């Protein structure tokens, strides 16, 4: 039977930096909390977090879309937790997925901007987390001897 690791130990198969491992744990924790907020907040976070007016016609559709987006984030979180607990050799892949996720948000946000009074935390976070994801991804790769 396999013993679950509680510390940030370097399991066999993962040869990257401890920074990348800890960063992925923190990022996965944030993603998990964000997903749960979008799924369970009454407005899906559309108004309370993103500042979108949900009292307009179609506002309930915005709320539903935010909740569905939250569920997708929850699936991503489950995959990341699975990698962290059971398959640490896939940490570079997990960080690649996170890099593409945060970078894609920036790209799509540029193509299809949302008009709000002030930028939501996720928009600001994308510009902070994308470079951090790139650094963590690079640091997670095995080093040649």
Automatic annotation (TrEMBL):
Q: Where are the transmembrane segments?
A: 21-41, 47-67, 74-97, 124-141
Q: What is this protein called?
A: Uncharacterized protein
The answer to keyword Transmembrane applying to this record is: yes
Q: Which organism is it from?
A: Aquiluna borgnonia
- Keywords tagged on the record: Membrane, Transmembrane, Transmembrane helix
